[in-house]
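Quick start: what a row looks like.
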Amino acid sequence: AVVSTQSTGESIQDLDESLVYEELADIRSAFEKLIDKFGYATVEDTMTKVVTVLEQFETLVSYKRQARLRLVNAELTLEEALYRTTHAYDPEGLLGCLTGIITVYSGVLAGHI
């Protein structure tokens, strides 16, 4: 199931961190206006909750970045393991050598006829 945000209707997958930070800046500005108009005591509880959520958001973003880096590192390690060899690699192997020998020998025989 795709989760969507209530305000914009965008799916969570489509959200960009920079857009979220822009929204947070708007929220901060709104809190500053409320504090200027009504005083800090009126928004203290709500502001504490918002700060807690923001800290959780930061933790989540950090975790996702670390998970992406671990995934990229795992992919690179897998590629190295798959494509690194300790000896020369002949993709055709013995079959390629045999067909080459047969072709040369056929040419020699054709030249004698």
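That is the whole record. The radius of gyration is 32 Å. The chain is about 75% helix and 0% strand.
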